[in-house]
Amino acid sequence: MDTLGSVPYYVVAGYMLLLLGLGIAGWRKSVNNEEDYYLAGRGQGWIVSSLTIMATFFSSFALLGAPGMVYRDGVVFALFSLNVPLSGAAVYFFGSKIRRIGQARGYVTPGDMVSDYYGSPVALRLLVALVGLLYTIPYVVMQIQAGGILSQQLFPGENSYEIGAVVLAIITMAYIMIGGMRSVAWTDVVQGILLMGGMLVGGAAVVAVLGGPVEFFNKVAELPAKSLSVPGTSGFWSPGMLLTVCLIGSIGSLVQPAQWMRFYAAKSTKTLKRSALIFAVVLTGCFLFGVMLVGLGGQVLYPIVDGAGDYYRSASGALLPNPAVGTKPGGFNDIMLVVLKNHLPELLGGLGALVASLIMVAIMAAAMSTADSNLHAMSAVVTRDIYDRFIRPTAGENERTWVGRAIISIVTIASLGLVIVANRSETNPLGMIVILGLFAIAFSSQLLPMTFDMLYLRKGTKQGAIAGMVTGLAIVFFISPFMPEMGEGLGGIRTAMLGMIDKGSWGVIGNVVVFVVVSALTQPLKPEDVAEFSRLADGE
Amino acid sequence: MANPEAEKRKKLGRILAIAFVAVLAMGAGPGLLLINPDPESADATFTFLGLPKVYAWGLLCYAAEVAIVVTAYFKVWRDDDDQEVKS
User: Fold this and answer.
1) pLDDT one-digit tens code per residue, B7-36
2) A508, A449 in Cβ contact below 8 A?
3) What percentage of chain A reaches a pLDDT higher than 70?
4) Residue of A nearest to B86 (CA)
5) Cβ contact A57:A259 at 8 Å
6) What is the pLDDT of residues A204-226, one digit of tens each?
7) Mean local confidence (pLDDT), A310-335
8) Considering only CB atoms, which chain A residues are within 8 Å of B28?
9) Inter-chain residue contact B81 with A539, CB threshold 8 Å
């Protein structure tokens, strides 16, 4: 990156060495057993827990996709941010009960708890594992891809994409394999601080570039009317969409396997209580006072309308960013990088290059913190829920831990291969993975009805839980582009559904209805088992 | 016999939960239509005290959500069941 000189090389090298050091430190402190490898001995304190939960919650979306969304749609994003305090509260509401029960019964994966409570060692365990894999696989692939894209921006040159993807993937794989959850969580602490610092410093930098807060908001007030109102420039963010994303999508991503395992790993309820408060207050603040300002300032610096007031559009009519930012619809996501590259060194000189490099490393940190948590969770799900139950039930703890490590290396290398091949391919082999990624939270949201029932209501049955999950997943698949013929064949129902409310919410609605009806018609769980579970969940 | 302290906490918890959903409905749901300026109208005002109206509304709702979470943290959420595990 010519405007930043050689500073990014030193910053990235220092960051990578720090991660490897933390990986080795995690390994030195580890004990050679499954509980330690997957849950850090269930002893994580509040600083580590809060930062690893937050770092896992946000992928590269926080520093690329979110500023891009504000840059395209304007101030409506402030209302989208209101989902974050609810997610924070869910850390306590779900996390404290999940931790208590998990600690008492030695659970490691979500499947352990769900299958045990509903008495379904095969069907529900496999369904929960399937949801886990549908969530984690696309996230791992997309974060490795983000490493390649960022490397292209930081170090333009031949093969920079491949080198960036390889470095991100290999270093991430190395520290997870050697140190397990402890290394993942410790690196998440650094990555979480970088991530939040990057959001806030990015926002402050853009305000400074535009001449301070008063001048900044004076210029923002002159943006196009659609950028200053709901549903935003694209027209996507209707009140129905915003509300369901805030209610369902936000907590749907908190019951995915990596977060669930972080609840098990917490040392105490107090740990999760504090984590919930920090999450709700700090992370939302980073969005409202960091990311928002980058996107709005981006619109001022790089208008999305031309001199005649018309929006830049592609041949197919899709919105485009300012030509100086990008020439494809996905180019909106580059706004943070473009602003940092073009304006920060000019404003702060040598210090600007350092700050810009640190924020770009923060983007890399956001990608790595999501990739590591998901890789680690995926290895637990495959090892505990599939290998141990259906392939080699006689496997010992040591064998299972090594199988988990092997899974991490296989998945990382396969994902890396896919990302590199896709970059050189005329076709788009990553297309389906990207679609899966867009629907990942919709899939994980299907765990919500049974999680809520298990932790609070305790009225559902095994058959109800299975039928509800299958229905919810089927609805999400129906509205996804995986089955376009079916969607088109029903007179545009799919398109209409996608435009009304959050896609995962459709699945949750169907899931809840079927869960309730089937549970009412089938045999309840044994009262003594439910009572014992209640006692553990409520900490009595 | 029910513990009066626990009952009081439960009641406050319910009130806070309802208040939180109401804030969400006002901030990110139909309630936002009360403040949302019509982009097609020539008379619409888009700012409030120098800030974009929708952004200011988001900040206000964020403050309300934080107030509810902080109240829940101190008054409702329990941590008296802890049996800490030594790592």
Assistant:
1) 899 999 999 999 999 999 999 999 999 999
2) yes
3) 95
4) A43
5) yes
6) 989 999 999 999 999 999 999 99
7) 90
8) 79-80, 82-83, 239, 242-243, 245-246
9) yes
The domain spans of chain B are 11-36+45-75
How far is C-alpha B83 from the chain's CA centre?
31
Pairwise CA distance, residues B87 & B81, whole Å: 18
Could you tell me the pLDDT band of residue B85, with boundaries at 50, 70 and 90?
A: very low
* Probe site for chain A from B3, B16, B18, B24 (most A CB atoms < 10 A): B24
Query: Closest to A268 (Cβ–Cβ): which among B29, B39, B84?
Result: B84
Verify whether the Cβ–Cβ distance A85 to B65 is below 8 Å. yes
Chain A residues whose beta carbon lies within 8 Å of the beta carbon of residue B27: 79, 82
The structural domains of chain A, ordered by start, are: 2-438 (1.20.1730.10), 439-540 (no CATH)
Q: Which of A50, A79, A91, A505 to mutate to test the interface with B (most CBs of B within 10 A)?
A: A79
* A225/B39 touch (CB, cutoff 8 Å), yes or no: yes
For B77, what's the count of Cα atoms within 13 Å in the CB-facing half-sphere?
Answer: 28
Distance CA A310, CA A322 (A): 12
* Angle at which helices A462-479 and A110-118 cross, to 10°: 130
Closest CA to A269 of A92, A66, A62: A92
CA-to-CA dists, residue A439 to A53, A492, A501, A507, angstroms: 21, 19, 14, 11
Tell which residue, A166, A190, A185, has the closest CA to residue A175: A185
The answer on pLDDT for A375 being more than 80 is yes
Chain B hits for A92, CB-CB cut-off 8 Å, are: 72, 77
Per-residue model confidence as pLDDT tens digits over A1-32: 556 677 878 888 898 899 889 989 988 888 87
Mean pLDDT lowest for which of A30-39, A240-249, B57-66? A30-39
What's the complex ipTM? Answer: 0.91
How many other C-beta atoms lie within 10 A of the C-beta of residue A424?
8
Whether a cis peptide bond, with omega within 30° of 0, leads into A231 is: yes
pTM, two decimal places: 0.91
Task: Report chain A residues whose CB lies below 8 A from the CB of B36.
Answer: 229-230
Compute, in degrees rounded to 10, the torsion defined by CA atoms A244, A275, A172, A289: 60
CB neighbour class for A14 (10 Å; exposed up to 12, middle 13-18, buried from 19) = exposed
Q: Which residue has the tokens 């959850």?
A: A181
